Amino acid sequence: MHSSERRERSCEERQSFAAAFSPALLNPEAETPLVVTGPGKKAAVKRYNVYRNNVTVSLINVLAEIFPATQRVAGSEFFRAMARSHIRVTPPTSPLLFEYGRDFADFIARYEYARSMPWLSDIARIERAWLDAYHAADASALTADALASIAPAQLAEVVFVPHPATRLVCSRFPALSIFAANRSDGTSGPIGAGEPEDTLITRPEMEVFARRLPPGGAVFLKCLMSGDAFGEAAFAALQSDASFDLVANIAGMLEAGAFTKAAPRP
Amino acid sequence: MSGQTIGERKHPRPLAGLAGISFKPEHLAAILADGPPKFFFEVHAENYMGAGGPPHQALERLRRDHPVSLHGVAMSLGGPQPLDRAHVERFRGLVERYEPVLVSEHLAWSSHEATYFNDLLPLPYTEATLRHVCEHIDEMQTAIGRPILLENPSTYVVFRDSTMTETEFLREAARRTGCGLLLDLNNVFVSAVNHGYSALDYLSDFPLDHVGEIHLAGHAEASDDEGEPLLIDSHDGPVADAVWMLFETVIGRRGAIPTLVEWDSHIPGWHGLKAEAEAAKAILDRPAASLRVPGKADAQLRAS
Question: Domain containing B164: what range?
Fold first, then answer.
């Protein structure tokens, strides 16, 4: 046997125990893997189930920690069943669990038992964005003075660098109000048929803020975040909503700390 | 014993006699308000692998006054597939940034193919898996530029293919890679009960000279397929009496070793955690002669 063949064979040998052990972890229908047993002549069904339980319950808990308002709105039992279904089709691929659940909002939007709560996935989107902002790189937000130092004639051509924490969530529902009312342990707020809400999530320093954007604000910021110049973004925002207030939106984005730098397009 | 412990980075204060506590960011204010530093604090490395934000701010603040120990839970050293390069690099970055006094990982695996299972999964103990674990330890130690401590697992099943005992496996891994060992006494007790052997016999065969840190924790009790006790390594309660006895035995034999009380769910307030660490500290501070050396009467420790 050549040494390369030997290496390959040894690789397969090593592969075998994990390949045999892992598939049943997330599949309750699967039999206990034959590679394991209890000590002596003892069985390993309940023993192997400890690992199954650790995997599933710990991952449900991870989702419950990332999406507390979603859980509160849906109810704990409903949420945990939904989370379990999600984990089985989309288990984590990264050991960084604060990155898990990026597909959960889309899963909720498709989840047939959640159809009566069409706003639920948008609440999850805000919560996922909130955690992204929490762990994003630290950066100093753009100041009003820095923006004021740009010559007015150049303003239309200015492009902005988004802060690493900045996220936008647009919703056909009052998602931010529902999120805010259910995020803490206080009395959960009523879920009425409110207006659609677009949410800006930022973390200029250590605290995460979620604020409602005025009409046209989401279009304006989305354009700026994708690198469009100030003039183009303002035009697009006005096109989307005639009541778009440029001055108020500039003040709002500065206060929120949504960007780090602004400079005329080279 | 000398102040310097295996796997320990040079630090102004000797670590050997220190007790440690799992760091929970919600305790930071209480820790800082609690007078001069008396403990070391252990963090799960993965919780600090984000780009920025409050976790790093809290850890920066903590480490200014307190020794920090970095405990990895996701390197998957025991798995058959190559280490995740990006994860090794993130780990290296944390070691460089926070200069932890201790660095540890597990004899276990948690990833297979693309999936991260978020549990410490068991492996067969064979010459092939040993070679592979040693390659992984070498790779990690080379990346971070210092030896790690490898932790003995708690297990619920055995592999039909195993050809060596866990203590043989750990001894060989330490000999071949130069790593130290993290002796988790709750894991020793949990595995001993689950597999029907004596925790004291296990410890008699454990290479105590290589131990650079001890873990103590609580466990829960379930039952196996035959209706007999099956202990679960749950980290959700106080340290069991039997585990305290094992601790006294090891400290009596080896002298003081930095010892962490782990508590990861149903966490009591800061003062509850501190009380448990102070109980460990009291044993570390006692002269060896006064420590309990279990005799045959300690049937609880001799599970089989």
Answer: 19-290
